Amino acid sequence: MELQGGAAAVAARYDYIWVVDDDVRLPTGEISRMFNILREHEQIAFACPSFDKGSDGVWRFFDGHDPRFKLRYTNFVECTAPVLKSAMLLDPRFQPCLRAVRTGCFIDFCFHPAAGGGNDVVAVIDAVQCHHPPRTADYPSEMRQVQDWLQHKNDDVLFEKEGVPKDWWAVEPRFFQPRVLGAIPAGD
Questions:
Q1: How does pLDDT run across 43-78, given as a tens digit for each residue?
Q2: How far, in Å, CA of 127 to CA of 34, rounded?
Q3: Any bridge partners for residue 159, and if so which?
Q4: Mean pLDDT, rounded, of the chain
């Protein structure tokens, strides 16, 4: 972001920014469709496409594609493929989260509270499906080559240092239950 002139310059240039893992697959037309849906629902500050049945990941039980909906409002989207409303780059509640994040660990828990905690500020976009292939020995995670998976949680020191409210990020993922807060049916 600094190479592009900083947060203000990026926010002035773009309305949304997709921060996506290097291996997520989504055709260009569907990326455009995702942005168009977000532009129709400007209150959404954070979102992600839904994930197809073959996608790998911890949260696929929650953000897997649901054909009944165009989108589901929720309190959580994982940091595998989030779309950020660029204005959030300038939001004083979210800026400490950005300064703290290194690996992606914890920031996904911060999206909903940083956006104000409303019922329509975070969404899974079911009208668009991406694919996140499984990581294998033949196709390892680039991040895990730099830092072991168990060490990702070391970002907690940075979240504390930046003053991010602990109840935003100090969540035990095994017990966290993402919730659907509302939805728009498919076809609407």
A1: 999 999 999 999 998 888 899 999 999 999 999 999
A2: 8
A3: none
A4: 90
Parts of the chain with a pLDDT under 50: none
Tokens of 123: 């969404």
List CB contacts of 171: < 8 A, sequence separation 6 or more. Answer: 106, 109
CA distance linking residue 112 with residue 5, whole number of Å: 27
Span between the terminal Cα atoms of the chain, in Å: 35
Instruction: Measure the CA angle with vertex 38, ends 169 and 72; round to 5°.
Output: 60
106-123: b or e for each residue (b if 16 or more CB lie within 10 Å)?
Answer: bbbbbbbbbbeeeebbbb
| 82 contacts 111 by C-beta, under 8 angstroms | yes
- Kindly report the pTM of this predicted structure: 0.90
Phi, psi of 182 (to 5 degrees): 170, 175
Report how far residue 75's alpha carbon sits from residue 112's, in angstroms, rounded to the nearest whole number. Answer: 5
- Please tell me the predicted confidence (pLDDT) of residue 185: 98
